[in-house]
Amino acid sequence: PFQGAATGVGGILRDIIAMGARPIALLDALRFGAPDDHFSRAVGGIGAYGNSVGVPNVGGEVVFDDVYASNCLVNAMCVGLLPADAVMSARADTAGALLVLYGATTGRDGIGGASVLASQELGEEAADKRPSVQVGDPFTGKRLIEVSVELVERGLVLSLQDCGAAGLASSLSEMAADYGIDVYLDRVPQRESGMEPWEIMISESQERMVAIVAPERLAEVEAVIDRWELHRAEIGEVTET
To answer: Is the pTM of this model over 0.70?
Structure first.
């Protein structure tokens, strides 16, 4: 409950910064069966991420009902500010542009959690079989905000997208709506050894963004990312088809 709610806050923040906005406020709508430990832990996760990343939780609502006893809901909302004519798109629109992945490293977070738990007997020796839970890092999230806002304000990126559910698989497919994308998964910074290509592709590791960058602006983009000490890698390029 703690990390599930915390990474929900982190995810909605990245949705806002992917549009080029600076987040200024968070709100949450919670649906639980009762004010039990799960509810308390979820509230703790929301507060911990928001406080650490420096964006206040300014309001929300709570409903307790038996219908949510086995299926709670945590809905997050974020408010951000940017000029109306400066909304950033996620779509690639220039063949030959480069893909830059920046933020945290990539692990096995969120891969096969429910299916593994339902079908395997888990023990202390089965670390590779235990379901992975996304773990938020709000301090990296804060740096991600500052890097992304600066990249957009200075006009250094052509488009921007966050890595949320389904990770790179989701982000890159949305970016490639009108163009093709060649991606080199061996270039992705990893924090676990022996990851398969499909694991890298669908990892839901938090605090990661993908930018599409004109080749002549790559050095400037890298300088901004390096100044905030985030991991980065040029992982591919946009193609005509």
So the answer is: yes
